[in-house]
Amino acid sequence: MYSWASSCLDMDDEYEKFVIRMHPPRVSVDNTSSKKHTLVKVDSANMQGSLLEVVQILTDLNLTITKAYISSDGEWFIDVFHVVDQDGNKLWDDKVVDCIQKSLAWRSYTFRSWRRSVDVQAVAEHTSVELIGRDRPGLLSEIFAVLSDLKCNVVASEAWTHNSRMASVVYITDEATRLPIDDPDRLSKIKLLLQYVLNGARDKNGAKTAISMGVTHTERRLHQMLYADRDYDINDSSEQETTTERSRPVVTIENCMEKWYSVVYVRCKDRPKLFFDTVCTLTDMQYVVFHATVNAEGQEANQEYYIRHIDGFPVCSEAERERIIHCLEAAIERRSSEGLRLELCCEDRVGLLAAVTRIFRENGLSLTQAEVTTHGSQAMNVFYVTDAMGNPVNRKTIEAIRKEIGQTILRVKDDAYSKSQPQETKRFSLGC
What we know:
Layout: H1 4-22, E1 26-30, E2 38-45, H2 50-60, E3 64-71, E4 76-84, H3 94-104, H4 111-115, E5 127-134, H5 139-149, E6 152-162, E7 165-174, H6 184-199, E8 208-212, H7 218-228, H8 237-244, E9 250-256, E10 261-269, H9 274-284, E11 287-295, E12 300-309, H10 318-334, E13 340-347, H11 352-362, E14 365-375, E15 378-387, H12 395-405, E16 410-413
Antiparallel strand pairs: 1-2, 2-4, 3-4, 3-11, 5-7, 5-8, 6-7, 6-14, 9-10, 10-12, 11-12, 13-15, 13-16, 14-15
Helix pairs in contact: 2-9, 5-6, 5-11, 7-9, 9-10
């Protein structure tokens, strides 16, 4: 039956669709105003979530946002972003510039595509598996082993760990047909066995497994999963000790009552995708960003947001203020890469992930973060590893792993790791 609620929703959608068609986004890419950066300016009708969608698109195009100025009071927003490519250079490639303009103006062609998160990977033809539970050494290895035994091919995956919790989104197909898995009985078996793995001996109630055929933005979904799991509110002594060893983000909130805003200040070490992580968290917590400035040209990033809750009110209580602070701290720390970065580049094959992560586990390594992608026939995987106690990995262990996996396909990136190592353990790198 066509309900009154769905009718109102359709009316809202039709109105917003009309506004967008009347006032499509204007996107300009300027390479002359700045010597160091390319300026991307977006003017458009304002809607809840517009800022996140723009930042998400720029981030998915592997662009680094070094500065940003946001103004979205009223019915219109104007965003100006100073961006560079992954190598820190301006964007001179006409194909890249054209891609930016088309991507940011996409909602002028289809309203639904703007409402839906954009993902750089086409996952609509895969089955999506979401996993969350208590982290432990060898957990991802066990997950990939189960999927391999169940004749599932892992096309892509990403996993984060924070505050002793692990969240992962895995995209799978049938091993033989390479098509999505849609058989209900088979999906139930996959879900049940993965639930057993997640439960282990210590997480009887907290582990969750979900399977769907929908399209999702992987990184935003990981934020949502850990937020729903309340990873920001978990007090684990071992995690606290690890966190205090690195510089914590500084988040403060003040009320600007004459303008009826709350002002959020964030200061922390800069890293890729930091802007996306903070905007994503504020948006999913139902806060609207009216004005913002971001500066991340040096080693440190400074962000300032003028926000109100979606109901129109600024932050009204100390408990609400503390919750925002803790959630933003968690969002920043989830993607902070702890451990040694290992890059695996080789011909993809069935069971590759299960085999590689088994070798990690057998050599006493613990995965803190993983990003698995497949480009054509090539597997391009990134792992961050520590030892089982969360400490830096011994170089002899890495050499043993390289020998077992294959010295020509494993590359070691030790930017962060080398800082905690003796002088003789300098950076080394292996091509693939």
